[in-house]
Specification:
The protein is an alpha+beta fold. The chain has helices spanning 2-5, 30-40, 81-91, 116-123, and strands spanning 9-12, 15-18, 24-29, 50-51, 76-80, 93-94, 98-101, 108-110. The chain is built from 4 helices and 8 strands, in the order αβββαββαβββα.
Amino acid sequence: MKNLYANNQDILAGDTYYVISSSNFALLKKEFRSEWLLYIQGKSNFVPEIDNSTLLCHKHDLLMFDLNKDQETEMFCTIPKEEWRELKLLYKGGPTISGTFVIGDTTAFTSIATCIECREKRYH
């Protein structure tokens, strides 16, 4: 899980994302990543179950973010889909929010649609 551990960064549409080696990715809540880093550094004895549910609106169970528009990334990072599968096997939880970047472009498509109604409420 070198990408999850790395401090490398990639710039996409002005936002900071963790480097991904392919166009297929998954979203991971940054809070889990922080807990996981403490665990593998020996500073914690516990890694919680992955909980990406706060990335979704509770009214419609859709994504609260539009990766093609939002400048806010403090809640999540992108990781290669292969690393997501490994984390999910080890730590359970979810939901899985996968996506694809269009090669040669910065357009992202996600497996869970953006909730336009709740996203707009969030920003206004």
